[in-house]
Write a structure and sequence with these properties.
The chain is α/β, with parallel strands linked by helices. 45% of the residues lie in helices and 17% in strands.
Length: 401
Amino acid sequence: MGAIEQGDDLEELGELLRTAGVAVVGEMLQRRETPHPNTYLGPGKVAEAKAAAKAADANLIACDDELTARQERNLEEAIGLPVIDRTTVILDIFASHAGSAEGKLQVELAQLEYNMARMRGLWSHLERLGGGIGTRGPGETQIETDRRLARNRIAALRRRLEHVKGTRAVQRAERERAAMPTISLVGYTNAGKSTLLNAMTGSEVGVRDRLFHTLDPTTRTLRIAGRTHLLTDTVGFISKLPHQLVDAFAATLEETRRADLLVHVLDASAGEEHAAAMKAAVEGTLEEIGAGDQPRLLVLNKADLLDDDERRELRLHNPQATLISAETGEGLEELEQRIEAELAHTLRPLELLVPYADGGSLAELHELAGDVTREDTAEGVRVHALVPARLAERFARFAVA
């Protein structure tokens, strides 16, 4: 396996390939103002890549960028090996990690849309059989057939995903009626979001040290100050995330757009420069999906991997962030306090007098408000509580003038 790119850092591509089950035997860099329109690399570098791949006994070339169909085809012909790009690797990882029916539909849609432009290359060996009016051969017919089948399948997948979107909307409406504050964990892939979900909620969501382990959103209840919140773990982001995936996972990412609070989990052990790049990639993706203006907290995870100097440096550069370790539990209490403070604007203070006979309303108050101040009086229970603003009207009949 070989890897080539135009930038300075192949580490992430190597990690993507490792996640896809591929061993990297060599790498190559070229700095150009713009990629070569026909072969991505310059002619001299293509010859160098061919020799290096042969010397390393590589059987595949991966490029850390998205190649055009022409660049991919020309590189394969020049080097004599299959060539894939970054998008293909990411789509392959998503395909292998998709567990739910929805996840599989989303990945298949992304793959089909990406491959539509590349279908001509699949049948280039047949195109010479025909050419011109009256001599149309099976190659062109096969291309047209495949494109039509792909378009039909894409339309069917979109219809099924619209149905999924409708189902999610019903579930979301149920949650909104319950008026529990919603929190979404967002961040670069492998930042530790699933580990944090488990640590905060006591759940046992699968966790592995690999990219894109979580594709389907997982929601668990979280109790803070006696009040129930909904905490959702979402798909991880990455730099140069293929647009096909952003579009295909629209229903999943809707959870992020509608959350009351985003908790941006950042891998603090990645080093300042790398962490800054990951943070920028996540913020760019949030803008792309329409969640750029959502209230958010920055959480620096994996503090257990840092020494004292690194901790001081991080706090200096990120004074508003919360330093935690989802693995050891360090900083989680402070994080819960920060979440509670950030969501305070969604609550309204109420002074109520609830008759003793209306025990159901009292129980509902305790569920929604968590810790309440109550006093038993002759007329009923006098309650001071913080209730989600959108539900305050439900208790208006008990309001004390």
